Amino acid sequence: MSPFTFRSIEELELGERWRAIFEERWPHYREWFLREGEEARPSYATSARMLRAHMPELVPAYERVVELAGGGDLAARMLSLYRPPPYLAACSQGAWTRDGGPLLARNYDYAPSRFEGIVWSTRLLDRRVIGMSDCLWGLLDGMNDAGLAVSLTFGGRQVLGDGFGIPIVTRYVLETCTTVDEARATLARLPFSLSHNLTLIDGAGRVLTAYLAPDREPIFRYFPAATNHQGIVEWPEQARATRTIEREQAIVRSLEDPSIDAAAFTESFLRAPLFSTSYAHGFGTLYTAVYRVLEGVAEYRWPASAWRLGFDAFHEAEHVEVLAEPTFVGYG
């Protein structure tokens, strides 16, 4: 077991503090981006063109981070997150709409060595956004000040395609959408590089799970849970290794049990089968997030501690947890 330091940073318009994080993390991301060879990645011209075509509102922020990163070709291509190398995790998420809600709870299951562990508070466009960073300016999960929260899980399919990596999609949804209905319309028109699931909840308690894939139209379900399959299991080995069916069933049982309240629901993410200790395989639980959208509060939890941040009181700090370092990373 080794300690891992989580950080919270507020920089409404990304600037020198983001640049410092880029310089710290760029060697890792450069290696990841080139692991299949530079020729396997799209050119800057293609990446920028696709971003302008599909996420035009995000282009000024993209140009800003590219400038902060030094303006290099390779960094610009990576930061577009267009057709990146595949990345696979596990993860569980569920949306609670009864008393004590609406809220979105999720576990992020991945390898500590490939995890940034930074909660950013930003205003890249018109909305305040709080979320857990990935790929330097994308998000694994988060919420905006309009009361929309979203989190991602791997979708359990091996198909690759010409589209965007899911962290930039999560960022884009939170920057440009205020409701589940707006998010659905946005997701319906975007291309994706890999199969992922997004679960969303808004301030009115509307819930949506989107099954996204590079080779078929998005499937939208008004269903409050997602793990690592899209309705049916399409990668049996991965499904068995991550216990995706068992985890989804556990979430649904909690949501449907009238004796379980919001506190018990969120606490269930800190126990098996939702909480994973499979660190040696690269999908141990690194944190539990709870987004309380009406309060504008984000809670990050571990079995023995919790960290509370919000739009009204975002405290920059460090939080140390002891996590197991994986010996290898499975499935990508």
Describe it.
With 332 residues, the chain is of the alpha+beta class. It has a single domain (2-323), classed as Penicillin V Acylase, Chain A (4-Layer Sandwich). The chain contains nine helices and 15 strands. It has a nine-stranded mixed beta sheet with strand order 10-9-8-7-6-5-4-1-15, with helices on one face. It has a six-stranded antiparallel beta sheet with strand order 11-2-3-12-13-14. Strand 9 (207-212) and strand 10 form a beta hairpin. It is globular and about 55 Å long.
| Number of helical segments with 4 or more residues | 9
Largest sheet, described in full? 9 strands, mixed
Note the beta-strand portion.
25-35%
CATH superfamily: Penicillin V Acylase, Chain A
Radius of gyration: 18 Å
- CATH topological fold name: Penicillin V Acylase, Chain A
The strand line-up of the biggest sheet is 10-9-8-7-6-5-4-1-15
Would you state the CATH class?
A: Alpha Beta
CATH architecture: 4-Layer Sandwich
> In the residues, how many domains can be counted?
1
Give me the count of strands. 15
How far is the first residue's CA from the last residue's CA?
Answer: 22 Å
Structural class: alpha+beta
> What order do the helices and strands follow?
EHHHHEEEEEEHHEEEEHHHEEEE
Roughly what is the average pLDDT, rounded to an integer? 96
Uncertain residue ranges: 325-332
Dominant shape: globular
Helix content: 25-40%
